């Protein structure tokens, strides 16, 4: 009996059985703290940025040579459904000639992560008009690009390609309308061919002449005149030698285009004495590079001008100063 009483007292004192014996408190069925445990683990949205690599952003600006005075600007569009328009004139270009106008252009890009040695390209109506290489970007830091593209009179559908050599380049669009001729020469003189046609009626009076013996006498000198015309056709025209992509000469054109373009961008404001001459050379080389062909005379003239820079100690020192070092540790 004592043993049974001891067991019952132990059972009643145990917290396991306290809910079944003694009191009828219902709260023990309600305290399950399961709701709080479910609310502690809501799905957290991943904080991933909308982009990772370099992206085009902001305004497409055509500026004066000082780089700060804006001539015209508009936001860069990310699709071709709606393209913003800029209107400029030939007089706004810093160089114009042969139907092409060169403008000072600025645009911006930003990258969610650091990027090095990137390349940007500008196209107008599917033709390459400008290229900037060896661009380095810090993460989330806006970078402004300054370049000098060639545009033609009329409508230019400009495509801005950021990080062009990557698998996922960023593309923006702007339409630039250029008024004027960009230095194109216009020659229209077709009416000069009409006066010879009025000379033909003058041959009608001889038909009224009765003597039939006279016309043959006049025919003989007429046969003599054609004999004088063949010598005019004799001078042979020498063949024009031209160079195109794939030739050694074209590789020299490509090098001149790339390095002169890099020099124009890198030496801006660096007080290089022949900077304006370098800008003019780069503009002329760009025309040839976009045409994908060059005749020998033009090639020789361009290479003579380019070699004058390559062999100049001041130019060599200036270029070395703007080329980033590759032995960073």
Give an overview in words.
A hairpin with a 6-residue loop joins β1 (54-63) and β2. The protein has 329 residues and is of the alpha+beta class. Among the domains are: 54-179, Immunoglobulin-like, CATH 2.60.40; 242-322. The strands form 4 sheets. The chain has a 5-stranded mixed β-sheet with strand order 3-12-11-7-8. A 4-stranded antiparallel β-sheet has the order 2-1-6-9, with no helix packed on it. A 3-stranded antiparallel β-sheet has the order 4-5-10. It has helices spanning 2-13, 34-39, 194-198, 214-228, 230-233, 248-266, 275-291, 296-310, 313-322, and strands at residues 54-63, 70-75, 85-89, 95-97, 100-102, 104-111, 115-124, 127-137, 143-147, 150-151, 154-162, 170-179, 242-243, 294-295. The chain is globular and about 95 Å long.
